[in-house]
């Protein structure tokens, strides 16, 4: 099993979710995040006061999947979250050794 984690722009969430659901993903976790990459922060002016925005709002998506579907899901996330500009995000995959569905006690791929 693999856990795919993506940090993307909030406005791309609907497109990523649609792509994953179209591929048959039945569950995912979405949470808010803030951070920066190469684009770093920038300064803005609000009511005459200048301030620095150094953490940009992002969305973190996590999908647990079987090994045979993992690369396809990564490709879907990358394709549907790409705007071609700095700050599009990152996607990574890690090995998951065990998963348990709490309600039924099912383990492994059956728990997905």
TrEMBL record:
Q: Which domain of life is it from?
A: Bacteria
Q: Name one GO cellular component term.
A: cytosol
* Classification via InterPro entries: N-reg_PII, N-reg_PII-like_a/b, N-reg_PII/ATP_PRibTrfase_C, N-reg_PII_CS, N-reg_PII_urydylation_site
GO molecular function, a single term: ATP binding
> O-UMP-tyrosine modification sites?
51
Reply yes or no: does the keyword Phosphoprotein apply: yes
Q: How does it assemble?
A: Homotrimer.
Keyword terms, alphabetized: Nucleotide-binding, Phosphoprotein, Transcription, Transcription regulation
**What GO terms describe the biological role, i.e. biological process, of this protein?**
regulation of nitrogen utilization
Q: Which organism is it from?
A: Arthrobacter wenxiniae
Task: List the protein's name.
Answer: Nitrogen regulatory protein P-II
